[in-house]
Amino acid sequence: MKMAVLLSGSGRTLDNFHERLHNGTMQGSIEVVISNKRDALGLEKSRKYGYPAFHGQDNEAINKILANYQVDLILLAGFLKLYTPPPTLNHAVLNIHPSLIPAFCGDGFYGMRVHRAAHARGVKVSGCTVHFANQEYDQGPIVVQKCVTISDEDTPDDIASKVFTAECEAFPEAINRVHAMGIDYFWNLRGVK
After folding, report:
1. Residue 41 belongs to what domain range?
2. pLDDT recorded at residue 191
3. Residues 129 and 49 in one domain
4. Which of 45, 114, 119, 166 has its CA 20 to 30 A from that of 127?
5. CA-to-CA distance for 71 and 77, rounded, in angstroms?
6. Are residues 101 and 174 in contact, defined by beta-carbon separation less than 8 angstroms?
7. Does some domain include residue 14?
8. Is 193 part of any domain?
């Protein structure tokens, strides 16, 4: 599958994708990288890796850029806005969330907010969820989840570090599953709209 990566920040997940594509442990190819932040470090990294990289400030601008590329799957890699894809890619947006959905998810739960909430609640496990995105936060079909154990001494930063390590395994695994089984398989599995 040909993939587009949408990001808002440093591009740590893009680093992981690039490494795994080059060592053969992740399927597909990255055709374009787009950020809603003009000065995102992830755009600089994209250019260094040789991927076309663009700033798109909103859905309309992003979709206009995507129209110039053949893309089968859109990867939200730390993209911090609700994204509406073009109709032809409506079910082809894959996102990663830093908790085990349905815990600590939905509108307003992203990044360190998730880890602070998990810490405040005193959870003993956390993790990440790779899921297809729809027009409701964190409601699309789940592809992969990974758990991490949380100790009583862990700070929110410790939790974030553990979860990001799990994300580095989960997102490529989910991409490989989508490549093997197809996008429709996951949407049809639970009848999610």
Report:
1. 1-90
2. 62
3. no
4. 45
5. 16
6. no
7. yes
8. no
Do residues 53 and 131 share a domain? no
Look at the chain and count its residues. 193
The token duo for 15 is: 């680093």
Number of compact structural domains in the chain: 2
Determine, yes or no, domain membership for 162: yes
CB contact set of 113 (below 8 Å; sequence gap of 6+)? none
Low-confidence residues in the chain, pLDDT < 50: none
Same structural domain, 73 and 120: no
Nearest to 174 by CA among 140, 150, 136, 149: 140
What pLDDT does residue 35 have?
97
The predicted structure's pLDDT at residue 193 = 57
Alpha-carbon distances, residue 183 vs 13, 16, 101, 149, 176 (angstroms) = 21, 22, 20, 30, 11
DSSP SS3 for 100: coil
pLDDT at 192: 58
CA distance 9 to 11: 6
pLDDT score of 118: 94
Q: Which pLDDT belongs to residue 115?
A: 93
Catalytic positions, written as ranges: 97
Residue 192 lies in a domain: no
Burial 57-86 (b: 16+ CB within 10 A, else e): eeeeebbebbeeeebbbbbbbbbeeebbbe
- For the whole model, what pTM was predicted? 0.92
128 vs 120: CA distance, rounded Å: 18
* Residues 128 and 173 reside in one and the same domain: yes
pLDDT at 107: 77
